[in-house]
Amino acid sequence: METLRGSVLTESGWIAGELGFAHRVDRIEGQPTETPEPPFVLPGFVDLHVHGGGGADMMAGVEAIRTAAQLHARHGTTAMLATSVTAPFAEIESFLGAVGSAMAADWPGAARVLGAHLEGPFLNPDKLGAQPDFAVAADVDALRRWLTLAPVRVMTLAPEMGPDDQVIAAAQAAGVRVQLGHSLCDYARAAACLQAGCGVTHLFNAMSPAAHRGNGLAGAALAHADYAEIIPDLLHVEPGAILAARRAIPGLYGVTDATAGAGMPDGMFRLGAQHVHKAEGAMRLADGTLAGSALTMDQALRNLVSIGLPLAEAAARLATLPADWIGRTDIGRIRVGAAADLLVLDGALDLTRVYICGQPLPV
To answer: At which positions is Zn(2+) bound (predicted)?
Structure first.
């Protein structure tokens, strides 16, 4: 059994003391504190939307998923969903096969792959953002086939691409969390889906906007969503909009939407069938459109704290809330019996140690 000492962020708040762990957290001892001091011991981050990293695009197969999972682990992500881009059906099916292999693998120093996030292909072709141009109408038979290939935990779709809601119903019946995104749906349509349990993908980006008239998906999310993801790189969404969403949506959680350029120097990278360029911390298409991000979760934490969130809340929005959204109460939190996915940070909120299921890795 190993021991960590410091300010430990538990489910009930900060404890000044120590925790003991092996594969799981075995004990937490100490006194509650309102003034935590470094080192800070936080739960490992849970990233539900990540396309790549370390130069690798996850659509390229299992070794690319491994490379990305290792890169993001070094930045504090201890569990993740491998995320697709819009592609022909055969490529989606190949991706899902790779996700299944990644879930079964025992990769040292890599974030655990919890399943897939299918971003598309049932997206609005007029709101693709940086998604490749392979959007199609919702196809419930295709979805049912894909669900046999790998555990799909989250699916992003535009509700107007399947007006009879068969795909949403089939996905939810299979336990998939459906999220609305890359959509031009109106307020009423979005509100109905949200009230039926859907979430939202990269809030404010690639969707009909919030407005005082002609309100769209973003406005419906602020009014009705229980859960929504947001990209806190401070490029996709400015600080004031993040703070507004935080007040409106109780389950607002952060994702990286990271692409192959995360953790890499500036240059050209793949995003499915697209070429994207990294420069000045951003990933973009040739026309300047943001194309995912180069964000890592440790930087997301520092960004959220920099705009005013307390450290405990910022950590919860990158660990506990995303885990809750996919029904994983054994990760994303520090309590006795939970997985020993643990991060140690110094006073500058830089990582000094990462543990995945109790196993340390270099950072």
So the answer is: 119, 182, 202
